[in-house]
Known about the structure:
The structure holds two protein chains of two kinds.
Chain A: H1 19-24, H2 27-46, E1 56-60, E2 66-68, E3 71-81, E4 94-103, E5 109-110, H3 112-115, E6 119-123, E7 129-134, E8 142-147, E9 156-157, E10 162-170, E11 180-187, E12 190-193, E13 196-199, E14 203-216
Parallel strand pairs in A: 1-14, 3-14
Antiparallel strand pairs in A: 2-3, 3-4, 4-10, 5-9, 6-7, 6-11, 8-10, 11-14, 12-13
Chain B: H1 2-27, H2 31-35, E1 39-44, E2 49-51, E3 54-68, E4 79-94, E5 105-107, E6 113-117, E7 130-140, E8 149-153, E9 165-170, H3 175-183, E10 186-189, E11 194-198
Parallel strand pairs in B: 1-9, 3-10
Antiparallel strand pairs in B: 2-3, 3-4, 4-7, 5-6, 5-8, 6-7, 7-11, 8-9
Amino acid sequence: MDPRWPPRAAPPPRRRGAGVLGFFTHPLVLTFLYLLAAVGLVAVFGGWAPAPQKSTIVEIGPGQSAMAYPFEITPVQAVWYDGSEERCGGPAGCVVVTLDVRVTAKTSVTGTLLTDGMNASLADSSGTAVVTGDERFGQGNILSRRAQDGRAGSVDLPPGLTTRMEFIIAVPDGAPAPSSIRLDVPAHTWRPYAGLLAYDWFDPRITASAALPITRGES
Amino acid sequence: MRKLGAAVLTLAAVAGMLFARSWLSSIVPPADAILKRPFLARTTVGKPAEYLLGRVTVTGFHVAKTVIPWPPKLRPTPAETAGVFVVVDYEFVAAKPVRVLPDWSLVDAAENRYLADRTVTACEQPQPGFMIACQAVIEATPSALPGARLLLPTHSNSNLDTPEEAVVVDLEIDQAQADQLVAEAGQVQAKAPMIKAQA
């Protein structure tokens, strides 16, 4: 007798997509899993791209406050002195700008940071520019800054405390007497620097722009 | 129907795993945070603390509105503040040659950090085996005093929020003491560093 007799029935054809393995190979499930993995990868390694921010300039006058992170600044006054004033440091006159500065960060911040990126422009009574200065690039006329009690401008300003600061801006010899000043203070941001977190130079997206009339001072 | 059940089960399992991962990551600190956790030698006023650079004892502190700087030649005018100056007296015995002792800072109860003011010369070149008495001046807001602690790291880097190793001195000031210290704040003459004794 033929041992192959009776012939065994052939197994039924395996249906595609059946069983657990088949479920995971289904095109719809695979697409879902790929999407899930992509979202996970982006969330873990990529992060979401920050939305582009518009440049914001906050215009303020005497006694008004504006944020230029990590500072909140309040312009107080601007006074023009002729060359006989000792603080001008020479025969040309100078403008002494007084600002109240409050640090809003959680750590003390050096006052030097305030003038990194600061721009000053003086105009005469007709609105014509007398001088512009930008200390950061060394083209400028901002001679010095200091806390009003005489400490150097590089003094560490404590968080939460308002410190009155003075900035001395030189006026070129022979220039007409300035009658107004505009002081632009950009915000700063934290960024990694040399393995540590340090303040980046400045963030031009947000700028506090202080416009002040200049009064004549007595030396 | 069986396929639908498997899909629902798989989705539920994936959602469960994601939830579990997010819950676990919220309760387990990341490895990075553990590696960067500073070594803190905690102490109080009058009690010495040993750390990498040597032995530090805060012997006392004053609260002032005005500090007459030292050396006077470099800073001729008194430093004044709308807040307060915390003038810290401390002794230091170096464990190894140190060029300049790092700057002190004051950390308040809300974790605001106030850095040392340059009103007094830092504790320079302390030699091992000698006890040197120095001062630090820190400008802060009056509200920083209750619960304040002093921090002396191993590196003078003001941007480093979490030092690798530091001495932490609890000033043990409560609100009533803080009010009294601020009310009595006057003028303090800053002192030069001075070698006190051979340790």
